[in-house]
Amino acid sequence: MLRRTLRILAFLLLVWTIAVQAGCLSFRTSDGKWAKKLREKGQTLQPRFTDAYDSLAQRTIHAVSIAAADSLPVWVFVHGSPGSSDAFLHLLADTSLSRRYRMISVDRPGFGYSGFGEVEKSLEAQARAVKLAVDQLAPNRPVFLAGHSYGGPVIVRFAIDYPEQT
Fold first, then answer.
1. Measured between alpha carbons, how far is 103 from 97 in angstroms, rounded to an integer?
2. Which tens digit of pLDDT belongs to each residue from 83-106?
3. CA 89 to CA 34: how far, in whole Å?
4. For the whole model, what pTM was predicted?
5. The three-state (H, E, C) secondary structure of the chain, written as one string
6. pLDDT tens, 138-153?
7. Which residue from 96, 52, 77 is spatially nearest to 147, judged by alpha carbons?
């Protein structure tokens, strides 16, 4: 009886683990759900999206932005691995930040809605992808950069390759 109970518990634990991991590893918030999630956290501003085409890598780079005004200083957030732009949802939802900064969160190549599953290994190509998205949402603007986990090396490469914009 004890052995059977343990097997059932082990099976249920396995099923639960698979279900949780499947949900946790999707790491994507659709454009349609961003506004709702931001409102739930207290943000009244509407998110703005872009899909910038990287002709060199032949892929589209997806990003989301939020700000009270286009003239505000620009913060760019780059997620780690795995992840997506929604890793910074809590910051984009912060109304005190969105009054002071234009915030942009980018889906790195191969993550989120930037060719999910087709990961780019080159830091140079990832930094170029971030630049393309930034140039769509905040053209010719200097930026502050924040990177989480693997986003750290990506923003360092961005700063090396585009010092005049950093």
1. 8
2. 999 999 999 999 999 999 999 999
3. 8
4. 0.81
5. CHHHHHHHHHHHHHHHHHHHHHHHCCCCCCHHHHHHHHHHCCCCCCCEEEEEEECCCCEEEEEEEECCCCCCCEEEEECCCCCCHHHHHHHHCCHHHHHHCEEEEECCCCCCCCCCCCCCCCHHHHHHHHHHHHHHHCCCCCEEEEECCCHHHHHHHHHHHCCCCC
6. 998 999 999 999 999 9
7. 77
